[in-house]
Amino acid sequence: MNVDVAVVGGGAAGVDAAVAVREQQPDSSVALISPDRSLRYRPWLVYLPAGAASATDMTMPLSEIAGRHEFALVHGQVRRVDPEASRLTVGPESAIVEYKQLILAPGAPADRERIPGAEKHAIFPCDADGAQELIDRLAELSEAAVLFVLTGERIGPGLEYAGWVARAARAKGRDGIRVTVVEHGDALDRQFGVRAAERILRQAATLGIESIRHARIEQVADGELLLAERSVHADLICVTSPLRGPDLGLPGRLLNSRGMLTVDPTLAAPTARNVFAAGDFSDVQGMDTELPKTWIMARLQAETAARNAVAALRGEPAAELDRRKVTRMSAISMPDVGGQTVFVRNRKPVVGGSWPLRLRYRMDAKYLARYRTSPGATRPGM
């Protein structure tokens, strides 16, 4: 197969990028390569253990999206990216996809080895298989101490999982389910600011969630979390979530120490100018602020990567990420902790409660309407 633009990854960034290229350059040939057959709306994974949303509500077949937007869909895992030859090797059959421009948006799975013992003894619910494992384990237990470890590049989902698990346990009279969040170092303070972090945890406490602040996590063991100061008993330990780049067979010189693709503000690799990255797989250098690993940021990057891939096809100059928009969106946080939130801007609490989440739910509904072909839930509900 030979295409103008190849896009690797069937998640939010990959699908948005493929659609954007087709919209901006209708006569271009585009192929989306993904090991998954469906687009999964990952922000809703946190609702699954509470039964606040179903897997059907958050899953959209990639074949239907590809058909509507007229790009090719290649099902398979990318085994090797050869930037010098501008081609991909896909699947066990070693199918070859040649491209003029490449957008890499494969996401970033959990780094299960960063905390000693975590791979063996912890659940990583930010990955889809980990979310299902959490559901299954919770169903087996009438009493359980459940810990959510907040560490790494993306701690928001840990708070959200904790909130919805605690809310569901309370609603179902499962008083034996005890939920605790454990902050590694100053993870909460760095993301939300000290005042906002304290306010979020006070709000979480109304759902019965306990918290351990500023812990130094040393190891995950069988039935306990080992801190520098003490050990904490747990029947379930969930880690959310240090990330690593997936193995795409890229030259190591293009990657950072976590296996992410290093790119400049145009999202192009400095030594492979027809290779772009979007979403969690990108390590963007040269920006005024560190870009968070969020769904919104992934979509902003997909927009820029698609625009620049099209510009390259036309022989036009590339444009950088919109720094003003990136800065504005990076400054906002709104974790959905069991249906309650604190709206945080510039690491300061602005307003709390449930009503700010209406904005988030409207964004959910708009996104789902864009890609879903059959009716379904537009907001979580129990």
TrEMBL record:
- Residue ranges annotated for the FAD/NAD(P)-binding domain, each copy included: 4-302
Native source organism of the sequence:
Streptomyces cavernicola
Entries under InterPro entries matching the protein: FAD/NAD-bd_sf, FAD/NAD-binding_dom, NADH-Q_oxidoreductase
Q: Name one Pfam family in it.
A: Pyr_redox_2
Specify the domain of life of the species encoding this protein. Answer: Bacteria
Q: What is this protein called?
A: FAD-dependent oxidoreductase
Keywords carried by this UniProt record: FAD, Flavoprotein, Oxidoreductase
- Classification via PANTHER family: 64 KDA MITOCHONDRIAL NADH DEHYDROGENASE (EUROFUNG) (PTHR42913:SF3), APOPTOSIS-INDUCING FACTOR 1 (PTHR42913)
Q: Kindly give the Gene3D superfamilies that the UniProt entry links to this protein.
A: 3.50.50.100
> Hey, which family's this protein in?
Belongs to the NADH dehydrogenase family.
So which cofactors does this thing need? FAD
